[in-house]
Design goal:
Blueprint: H1 8-39, H2 43-68, H3 74-91, H4 98-126, H5 130-159, H6 165-183, H7 198-211, H8 213-243, H9 248-275, H10 278-302, H11 308-326, H12 329-335, H13 342-370, H14 373-394, E1 402-405, H15 414-419, E2 423-426
Antiparallel strand pairs: 1-2
Helix pairs in contact: 1-2, 1-4, 1-5, 1-6, 2-4, 2-7, 2-13, 3-4, 3-6, 4-13, 5-9, 7-13, 8-9, 8-10, 8-11, 8-13, 8-14, 9-11, 10-11, 10-14, 13-14
Length: 441
């Protein structure tokens, strides 16, 4: 896996991702401390609103920003987004009201909604071999997991020698270093594309995404992953403190187990995906994840909480299954669009997957608060099972080359000339010549 870092462009972009993630991790810690300074016991409500604003920016703005940036140089788009995040991080130490937090978080997350899909769409243009791209996806998953594990430790060490306001400076430094790395990286030019009106650019990614069976399946599996893992992210702290009577160290151990499971899966996935199709890996993981969540809920309802070692083991398994669902996503997106359409499709994935979290997060919190921890697990597990069934139903296996006809095209159309006639087979993607997925060959 590490050998792909020998590719100079990818190595620099991966380093930019790592330092930006480290900065984001410091921001998460510092933002919690700032919210407590400003709101005291109501800090949880402040942070909840801030994270809701984050999701709204991701879901609502990413398609708009992606459409606006569709004709712009990709390096310029990435640098602009990073500089906006850098500027916001520098302003955060001077915040003195909750309203200012909300405004700055909206600006920062809007920049992230522009940066992330653009960044993700560049990688398959750099790593053109699927096995290299698969390793890059696993490496990216590892970077996210390491950020979750190491950022709290790094923040703790920095807080020994500075106030939490200094963490915002660390965040800004991460975004600035990311900017400099992108500046010195040779990026492939944006693929040539037709001059399309804004409305078409705005909806094109979602049209391709929702017209492609494997991407509809991906969305359903994303919902299954969000359903189960939202319980981990929202309710672990309550379960650890109230159920097991443990403090911050216990919470760190639980989230560490989850992260370790995710990292172990990311390390093993490249070899596994060489042997098994994506649908089997993702679908089997989604089924197992949903059953693990329902089983945990039934055990808690009828027996009580698991033993502490069993709980940590379960969280590691859930982390591994979660990683197995998410990591192959980029492979599906890469196969499902021409290079000119990939930024729009990655943007659609970014927005639609966060819709899943926008549903799952409140459901995890509401069901646990209004009902019980066991009820929350059962509700979320049932949602995960239903989503998995939908995923299998809408994602029917298809051959690499799909036989189809073009009765609507004239005989001299370039597409017919290139593929030898009106009826032909090739790797099928939704585009200007293929508006719907063929259902009868």
């Amino acid at each position: 896996m590490i050998r792909i870092l020998k590719h100079p462009a990818f190595a620099k972009l991966f380093a930019a991702q790592v330092v930006a993630l480290a900065g984001t991790g410091l921001l998460t810690i510092a933002l919690g401390l700032l919210a407590y300074d400003l709101a005291g016991p109501a800090a949880g409500a402040v942070l909840g609103t801030a994270y809701a604003i984050k999701m709204v920016a991701y879901v609502g703005l990413s398609p708009v920003l992606g459409a606006l940036a569709a004709r712009l140089p990709r390096r310029g788009v990435l640098i602009f987004a990073d500089l906006v995040r850098f500027g916001v991080a520098l302003f955060l130490p001077f915040v003195d009201s909750v309203a200012q937090i909300y405004v700055l978080i909206f600006l920062l997350q809007s920049a992230s909604a522009l940066f992330t899909p653009t960044f993700q769409a560049i990688i398959p243009d750099i790593l053109t071999k699927e096995e290299d791209y698969t390793r890059a996806l696993s490496l990216s998953r590892l970077a996210y997991d390491l950020e979750n594990l190491l950022s709290p430790a790094l923040a703790g060490m920095l807080l020994l020698v500075m106030s939490y306001h200094g963490l915002f400076v660390g965040t800004a430094a991460g975004f600035l270093i990311s900017t400099l790395l992108i500046l010195i990286t040779t990026l492939p030019p944006r693929p040539k594309s037709k001059d399309r009106p804004f409305r078409e650019r705005l909806t094109r990614g979602a049209w391709i995404y929702l017209s492609t069976p494997r991407l509809r399946g991906l969305l359903a599996f994303n919902m299954a992953a969000a359903a189960s893992v939202s319980y981990v992210l929202v309710n672990t702290v309550v379960l650890v403190r109230n159920g097991y009577g443990m403090g911050e160290a216990g919470l760190a151990m639980a989230m560490g187990a989850f992260g370790a499971g995710s990292m172990a899966a990311a390390l093993s996935l490249p070899r596994l995906l060489e042997q098994l199709p994506d649908r089997r890996v993702m679908g089997t993981s989604a089924v197992a994840l949903a059953f693990a969540t329902v089983g945990h809920g039934l055990w808690m309802q009828n027996v009580g909480i698991l033993s502490w070692p069993a709980f940590l083991g379960l969280w590691a398994v859930i982390g591994a299954l979660y990683s197995a669902i998410l990591t192959p996503s980029g492979r599906l997106l890469r196969r499902s669009a021409h290079s000119e359409d990939r930024p729009a499709v990655f943007t659609a994935q970014f927005a639609l997957s966060h819709v899943c979290w926008l549903v799952a997060y409140p459901l995890a919190g509401w069901s646990a608060t209004q009902g019980s921890q066991a009820l929350s697990l059962l509700v979320l597990g049932a949602l995960g099972l239903a989503s998995t069934v939908v995923g299998y139903w809408v994602w029917t296996p298809a051959p690499k080359e799909v036989m189809h006809e073009h009765p609507e095209l004239p005989e001299d159309h370039p597409h017919l000339q290139a593929h030898g006639g009106r009826r032909h087979a090739h790797a099928y993607v939704i585009d200007d010549e293929h508006h719907v997925w063929p259902t009868h060959g």
